[in-house]
Design a protein that fits this description.
The protein has 463 residues and is of the alpha+beta class. It folds into 3 domains: 4-161, Beta-Lactamase (2-Layer Sandwich), CATH 3.30.450.20; 220-306, Helix Hairpins, CATH 1.10.287; 314-462, 2-Layer Sandwich (Heat Shock Protein 90), CATH 3.30.565. Helix content is 55%, strand content 19%. It has a 5-stranded antiparallel beta sheet with strand order 2-1-5-4-3, sandwiched between helices. The protein has a 5-stranded mixed beta sheet with strand order 7-9-10-12-11. A two-stranded antiparallel ribbon has the order 6-8. Helix 9 packs antiparallel against helix 10 (426-436). It starts with a helix and ends with a helix.
Length: 463
């Protein structure tokens, strides 16, 4: 497997090499163009001076006469090769003795015949380097009588360009080498923290959630490190909650089992009166029901956690469910001396949902309200229809929930600190059921002032 470090170094070096090569090509071409332009300007100034001299002092005689009598006048102004071309395109004078040239190499001459400055760069058969030719018209008055042409070799210019290019190339190589070392350093600055995060993740994968990933930089890798540490902390919390939950459930299962076994042993040894028998059987029945309820709650919770629970939706009358809950819980309210009040609006709309699960939610919430409300307290259950939502509110005047515990009460396995707290899955199941119904469950509470649980169910989901 190719490491990220190698890939990063290769990518860095690829970008650097491409950038350096492109920059050097640009710089060398710029230098070349500047050198050629300077040479062109110098030749142009010299040839224009010679042409103006001819026009002022020698235009009275013919071109051929001037060549015969004043030929040295034309090459005094320059060190370049000088040619004079007549109107027929023939070379009538060349300072180094060239007598003809190819027609395709006469672009500059043709421009000069059209009263323009001509320039040509190319190869000639008497020089191994390229040459630059500048042509300019010779005039007698307003008439063109011939063309003056200056030709110079590009040998010295090209040598200067090559020297500068070699300096650029060597400088580019140095830049690439230095950049290579910097690329390795930069790759290490990225890979180092990533390796530490990977090592911490591997240790966590082996079950060591107490290990911590060290955060070096406040970047994406640092954020990943924070996320891993947060995940490990949450897992440890969940493990602790699960341990506490198992301990709590074991204790609560042991209590009814102890009662059942104790009375079974007592009755097996005999009983004095029928009243003792009935008391024992009554306790065994109640404790068995309590045990069955706890087991069903655990199985229910297991289904929700595994995602196997499916709502059996049908059209339900919300008012009839509320009245059923009134009948079911009123005896308990009377027994515990709690003022239990239920209110709901007339003509509540039908709800397309799972009626049994809805009862389970309300009974669980009300059971908590009764459990934590002392005698003489009050529990209210209000229902209203608002903005296409059915809103159910259960409010009590019980002991309330501390600000520290309030965000945790819906977490799986979380058990409150009071002696009345149960196994810590009731509200979690309620929250799961309400979420399946596309609703929300919100808990508001203040310590020693009471608690309010608000369940909001949308009608749109059912429709």
């Amino acid at each position: 497997m190719k490491s990220i470090k190698k890939r990063l170094v290769v990518y860095f070096m690829f970008i650097i090499v491409i950038t350096v090569v492109a920059l050097e090509i640009f710089l060398i071409n710029t230098v070349k163009q500047n050198y050629y332009k300077n040479l062109e300007d110098n030749l142009y100034n010299q040839i224009k001076m010679s042409s103006d001299l001819y026009c002022q002092y020698f235009s009275d005689a013919t071109l051929h006469e001037n060549v015969l009598n004043n030929v040295d006048t034309f090459w005094r102004q320059t060190t370049a090769q000088v040619q004079i071309i007549d109107l027929d395109g023939d070379i009538i004078m060349d300072s180094i003795g060239v007598t003809n040239f190819d027609d395709e190499k006469m672009d500059d001459v043709n421009k000069a015949f059209n009263d323009q400055k001509g320039k040509w760069i190319g190869k000639v058969n008497y020089d191994i380097e390229q040459v630059m030719a500048i042509s300019y018209p010779l005039k007698s008055g307003d008439n063109i009588v011939g063309v003056l042409r200056f030709i110079t070799s590009l040998r010295e210019v090209n040598n200067d360009i090559r020297e500068i290019a070699s300096v650029f190339v060597w400088f580019g190589l140095v830049v690439v080498i230095i950049s290579g070392f910097l690329s390795i350093f930069l790759a290490n600055s990225i890979i180092g923290p990533l390796k530490e995060v990977t090592t911490a993740a591997e240790e966590m994968a082996l079950g060591d959630f107490k290990t911590k990933s060290k955060k070096k930089y406040n970047d994406e890798i640092g954020k990943l490190s924070d996320t891993l540490n947060y995940m490990a902390t949450e897992i440890l919390k969940r493990e602790q909650l699960k341990t506490d939950f198992i301990s709590s459930v074991s204790h609560e299962l042991r209590t009814p089992l102890t009662s059942i076994k104790g009375w079974a042993v007592t009755l097996k040894q005999g009983y004095e009166t029928k009243e003792v028998l009935m008391d024992g059987l009554d306790i065994i029945e109640k404790e068995s029901d309590r045990l069955t309820l706890m087991v069903e709650e655990l199985l229910d919770f297991s289904k929700f956690v595994s995602g196997k629970t499916v709502l059996e939706k049908q059209e339900i009358d919300v008012a009839s469910i509320i009245e059923h809950i009134r009948k079911q819980l009123t005896p308990r309210a009377l027994r515990d001396q709690i003022d239990f009040q239920i209110s709901y609006e007339d003509n509540l709309p039908k709800l397309h949902s799972d009626g049994n699960r809805l009862k389970q939610v309300f009974i669980n919430i009300l059971d908590n309200a009764f459990t934590f409300t002392p005698s003489g307290g009050k529990v209210t259950f209000d229902t209203r229809y608002e903005k296409s939502n059915l809103i159910f509110s259960v409010k009590d005047t019980g002991c309330g929930i501390s600000e520290e515990d309030l965000p945790k009460v819906k977490e799986k396995f979380y058990k409150g600190k009071t002696s009345k707290s149960k196994n810590g899955i009731g509200l979690s199941i309620c929250d799961e059921i309400v979420a399946l119904m596309s609703g929300s469950l919100e808990i508001k509470s203040q310590l020693n002032e009471g608690t309010e649980v608000v369940v909001t169910l949308p009608l749109e989901e059912g429709e």
